[in-house]
């Protein structure tokens, strides 16, 4: 049996209930994955435009030049969003569309697109939730050193100020970075994402400068907002780390995994310090974080909300399958251990109960209000003869994870919203267009949009939640 493609349930689950009237419901996207129009109206190349041209970097040699053509179909897409009944749309701004080259003045035509998008959303009663950076660094800044270079953090704060100056009168909810772990580790340590570099020391410099960029941008936004409403946050991709056995080696592996994936980001953001054990682990590999006086205070600029992107928890071991020590290879490393669990088309285990565990842990250790800013799954959808898209596996995934949020709230966790990833099928980074996360199907030949059954279920869940609390 192929668990990655076999529906997890035969019957569509009932809508999830038990969430309050002020709970925020949304869908999410990112600029490079949907916009297209890669060379229009003054936009310059990002690191993803460049990376997609590297032979073998992206499946099928695909790219985001057109993607979902959202740049030209935006009003149609906003109508679709509003029809789902969500109250919030999380989207990212394209840095090279707003500030071509990553330096200098703002590009009016780029800003005008986002002003039209925001006005369309507001006119349909949907709140805009902006992410400033979802991985599309202007290529010129990468040529100057990228995120391992301190100057990129300064440039990011400048870009954030330009964006807020233009859009701050329309938007209250601002997220600085999406998933800095992915930017640093997949982009600079493992070479799997743009810019495709493989240097552990550069990756750790990128971690620090991404966080510094967040802190400087957050401070700039707070100063610019003054007394105007502002809900400021950052979004991290977070999971759980479970040891394969009770051995000291496996417990140590989980300490390292949790340290590199969670505490390395949240400790400086909330407590203005890096975790001492991870700093020591890195030092043993002759890697230091390039911290200067004042950096940690800037990084710890107070947050109003923590965005949590959750896709799976994982099990880890500290030894190879034959019990030998792991080769550190320049970073603290662990071995992921597969479990006998259902999986998505990404070959990711489906672990909704671990979302509850994660949220409880975040409340205990960091005390920030949270919103699930991404949660969803890729499956191999098939269009039925009548044109519908039955996706019971995705519907079950959403139902189980929303139920996990309900369970976390029952334990006192201040989780305030849930955004499904993603609104529509889109360019899935190094997988090209091979993986479909959307609750809306996109026919890439015609750009036609079709609500999948999961979208209809999500719409009904939102409607019933509001009816329950009316």
From TrEMBL:
Keywords: Carbohydrate metabolism, Cellulose degradation, Glycosidase, Hydrolase, Polysaccharide degradation
Tagged with keyword RNA-binding: no
Reactions catalysed according to its record: Hydrolysis of terminal, non-reducing beta-D-glucosyl residues with release of beta-D-glucose
Enzyme class: hydrolase
Active-site residue list: 374
InterPro entries found in the cross-reference section: GH, GH_1_N_CS, Glyco_hydro_1, Glyco_hydro_1_AS, Glyco_hydro_1_beta-glucosidase
SUPFAM superfamilies membership: (Trans)glycosidases
One Pfam family hit: Glyco_hydro_1
EC number: 3.2.1.21
PROSITE patterns: GLYCOSYL_HYDROL_F1_1 (PS00572), GLYCOSYL_HYDROL_F1_2 (PS00653)
Keyword Hydrolase tagged: yes
Sequence similarity: Belongs to the glycosyl hydrolase 1 family.
NCBIfam families: BGL
Protein name listed in UniProt: Beta-glucosidase
């Amino acid at each position: 049996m192929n668990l990655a493609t076999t529906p997890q349930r035969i019957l569509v689950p009932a809508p999830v209930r038990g969430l309050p009237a002020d709970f925020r419901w949304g869908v999410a996207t990112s600029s490079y994955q949907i916009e297209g129009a890669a060379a229009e109206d003054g936009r310059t190349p990002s690191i993803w435009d460049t990376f997609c041209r590297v032979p073998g970097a992206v499946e099928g040699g695909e790219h985001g030049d057109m993607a979902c053509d959202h740049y030209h179909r935006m009003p149609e897409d906003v109508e679709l969003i509003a029809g789902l009944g969500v109250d919030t749309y999380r989207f990212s701004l394209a840095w090279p569309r707003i500030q071509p080259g990553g330096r200098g003045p703002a590009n009016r035509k780029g800003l005008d697109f986002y002003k039209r998008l925001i006005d369309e959303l507001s006119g349909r009663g949907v709140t805009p939730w902006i992410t400033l950076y979802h991985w599309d660094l202007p290529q010129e800044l990468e040529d100057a050193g990228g995120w391992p270079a301190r100057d990129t953090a300064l440039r990011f704060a400048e870009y954030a100020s330009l964006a807020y100056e233009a859009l701050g009168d329309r938007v209250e909810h601002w997220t600085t970075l999406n998933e800095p772990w992915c930017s640093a580790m997949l982009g600079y340590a493992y070479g799997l994402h743009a810019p495709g570099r493989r240097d552990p020391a550069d990756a750790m410099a990128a971690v620090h400068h991404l966080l510094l960029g967040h802190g400087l941008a957050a401070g700039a936004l707070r100063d610019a907002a003054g007394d105007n409403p502002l809900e400021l946050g950052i979004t991290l991709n977070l999971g759980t780390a479970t040891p394969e056995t009770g051995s000291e080696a496996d417990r140590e592996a989980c300490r390292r995994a949790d340290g590199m994936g969670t505490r390395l980001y949240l400790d400086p953001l909330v407590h203005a310090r890096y975790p001492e054990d991870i700093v020591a682990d890195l030092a043993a590999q002759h890697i230091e974080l390039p911290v200067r006086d004042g950096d940690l205070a800037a990084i710890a600029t107070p947050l109003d909300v923590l965005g949590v992107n959750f896709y799976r928890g994982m099990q880890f071991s500290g030894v190879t399958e034959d019990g030998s020590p792991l080769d550190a290879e320049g970073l603290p490393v662990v071995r992921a251990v597969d479990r006998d669990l259902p999986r998505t088309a990404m070959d990711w285990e489906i672990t909704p109960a671990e979302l509850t565990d994660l949220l409880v842990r975040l409340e205990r250790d960091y005390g920030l209000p949270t919103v699930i800013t991404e949660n969803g799954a890729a499956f191999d959808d098939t269009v039925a003869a009548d044109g519908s898209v039955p996706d019971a596996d995705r519907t079950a995934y959403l139902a189980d994870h929303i139920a996990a949020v309900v369970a976390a709230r029952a334990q006192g966790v201040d989780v305030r919203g849930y955004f499904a990833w993603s609104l529509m099928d889109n360019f899935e980074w190094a997988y090209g267009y091979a993986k479909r996360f959307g609750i809306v199907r996109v026919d890439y030949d015609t750009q036609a949009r079709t609500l999948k059954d999961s979208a209809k279920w999500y719409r009904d869940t939102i409607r019933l939640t509001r009816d329950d609390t009316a």
